[in-house]
Please model this.
Amino acid sequence: MDRARPFPSRRRLLRGAALAAVPYALLPRARAGAEPQAVDHPLAEWQPATPSNYTASNRPMTYPLDYVIIHVTQETYAGTLSIFQNPKKKVSAHYLVRSADGHVAQCVREADVAWHAGNWDHNTRGIGIEHEGWVDQPAYFTDALYERSATLTAAICTKYGIPKDRAHIIGHHEVPGTDHTDPGPNWDWARYIRLVNFV
Model:
């Protein structure tokens, strides 16, 4: 039977911790404003997709922004973040809205091209917003989800001069060539557009 190893003394632990901290103390501090993860929407939390799942760009200089594309994840909030962070999945969206409380995660910068529409032209010209839930389970479309998403969409439309109407705020199912059905028949478009224009 192995004998348990004795615990190191308190002095040895403190000395080790001090030595481990020395290299970090010598590093220069980050410059003010040098935050590549800064979110584009002030109410969002940065939860980055892997760079393998989107195309770096400089929109709207490289491509005009004409659409906000509404999606439903068919997955949980945490599961969707995991998919966006998996380089094998080759999919992402700019934003993800949680069902329970409307919490917004930004996963791709608005300047970059997220891979969400299944159509390159609409990817380059659109901002994709995923919503936690399933198309056949309307209980996921909570008041908080609608309100926070509408606030986000209104801000995007204002920022890029996108009209706040159904011709420019579209569902994934309306993208040419798609085989997706989201956001589905339970998504309340009249309510959503009204909220976008009320903000």
Q: What stands out?
A: The CA atoms of residues 73 and 132 lie 5 Å apart.
